[in-house]
Write a structure and sequence with these properties.
This protein has 9 helices and 10 strands. It has about 270 residues and is of the alpha/beta class. The strands form 2 sheets. A 6-stranded mixed sheet has the order 6-7-8-3-9-10, with helices on both faces. Strands 2-1-4-5 form a 4-stranded antiparallel sheet, covered by helices on one side. It starts with a strand and ends in a 12-residue tail after the last helix.
């Protein structure tokens, strides 16, 4: 069976051999089928964002393999992995050019991998396509297509970044705590938009979150990490029936300690 993502025995140690040595990933194994939407939870330093960065090629892994869509990308630098991936970060300022219009940002994303200039302007066909995509968000942004992105709210920026990340239908969409900087109401809206974009584009996605309820409510699969390892992996009907108390019990059982984390949200 071919997977959309395979992480095979991946290890990553930061500051190896020094007093600050930190084992970030400790033999991570994970396979994602095409169309899987996996939510990833765990305490601080569990390895969640490190795993996403390993997939994106932000730095080399010390051991193991990363295979995306059947291609071994382990040795590829970050810019050569970009065509495989869409990414949305925690900071709404990341992922968009603040001084450019919404339409220009979308054009850059749509033309990624082609000549990087917008000299020829945005065609009418492109503009119509972006209008429909923005209208679909339900935020009224289709009427503000020439507005500079820097003037928008954090939630609006994240919604546009999601559109941009999905516009070329990447093999894998990485969402790294992409609602953490937003207020609860805006976060809920951005999650709703995320679900819709992933479903409509049939994307395979991974979402790191600190909100246990969100982790249960979104996606078809949930992974819990602790000390650089995956300690729990649940999917389908079993995942749908989960409660936050189940996740806490599972963490305590797997780690031998109580889940104590200031940033983890249980509600």
């Amino acid at each position: 069976m071919s997977y959309m993502l395979e992480i095979k025995n991946v290890h990553k140690i930061f500051n190896a051999g020094t007093i600050n040595q930190k084992v970030a990933l400790n033999g991570v194994n994970l396979q994602l089928n095409e169309g899987d939407f996996v939510t990833i939870i765990g305490g601080n330093g569990a390895g969640k964002s490190t795993m996403l960065n390993a997939i994106a090629g932000v730095w080399d892994v010390d051991e193991g393999q990363i295979i995306i869509g059947g291609d071994d990308v382990t040795a590829l630098p970050e810019h050569k992995r970009a065509p495989y991936l869409g990414r949305v970060f925690q900071d709404p300022m990341n992922g968009t050019a603040a001084t450019m219009g919404i339409d220009e940002n979308m054009a850059i994303a749509a033309r990624r991998g082609q000549s990087r200039t917008l000299r020829w302007g945005i065609t009418r066909t492109e503009r119509e396509k972006y209008y429909e995509m923005l209208k679909d968000l339900g935020l009224g942004l289709e009427e503000r297509m020439t507005s500079k992105v820097g003037l928008l709210s954090g939630g609006q920026r994240q919604a546009i970044t999601l559109l941009m990340a999905a516009i070329q239908k990447p093999k894998l969409l990485l969402l790294d705590e992409h609602t953490a900087a937003l207020d609860p109401k805006t976060a809920a809206k951005v999650l709703e938009i995320s679900d819709k974009i992933i479903e409509e584009n049939h994307l395979t996605a991974m979402m790191v979150t600190h909100n246990m309820k969100d982790a249960i409510a979104h996606g078809n699969r949930l992974v819990m990490m602790h000390e650089g390892r995956i300690i729990y992996d649940v999917a389908g009907e079993e995942k749908k029936k989960l409660h936050v108390s189940d996740l806490l019990a599972k963490f305590e059982e797997a780690s031998g300690s109580e889940f104590a984390n200031d940033r983890m949200m249980f509600v």
